[in-house]
Amino acid sequence: MNAATLRAWWSQRPPREQSLLRLGALMVVAGLLWSQALAPALRTVRTFDAKRTAQDAHLQSMLRLQAQVQALRVLPRLSQTTATQALQASVQQAFGTLAEVSVSGDSATVRLRGVTAEALAQWLANARINAHCVPLQAHLTRAGNGWSGTLQMALPTP
């Protein structure tokens, strides 16, 4: 259909039909404008505050982690013997008879029997700070009121 045919068809329509077709075309354009331009922009404006708050919380968390890393970097390096002693002392203090440590080379294996999640989390944080040990592997299962299994910890290397 070319332009001349379209003009001829349009001129044959009664004025009322032309008005209704214009109104219909205007409604289609308005619907497209709303769905493609205005609705997404309004949705972004509505969700901006919640997303900004979540991003701020995430940023604060990352800044706290950065501060922890910087604090750990300024700590003096421990010898492997000192780290092993600190790890054994922290296991004894945190878990008592519910855990035991065995050292092999530059790693230590901690066997746990029924320790609580809170105690385990606090001990892991203390082991990192005080003994400069980090977990390499964890094989834990929930048993009754606590967790049992093994944690392989990396000891600091000279």
Give the total of beta strands. Answer: 4
What's the main sheet like?
A: 4 strands, antiparallel
CATH class of the largest domain, named Alpha Beta
Number of domains: 2
The sequence of SSEs as H and E is HHHEEHEE
Radius of gyration: 34 Å
Report on the architecture of this protein.
The chain is α+β, with helices and mostly antiparallel strands. It folds into two domains: 71 residues; 75 residues, Gyrase A, domain 2. Helices cover 63% and strands 22% of the residues. The chain is built from four helices and four strands; from the N terminus they run H-H-H-E-E-H-E-E. It has a four-stranded antiparallel β-sheet with strand order 1-2-4-3, covered by helices on one side. Helix 3 runs antiparallel to helix 4. The N and C termini lie far apart (83 Å). 13% of the residues are buried.
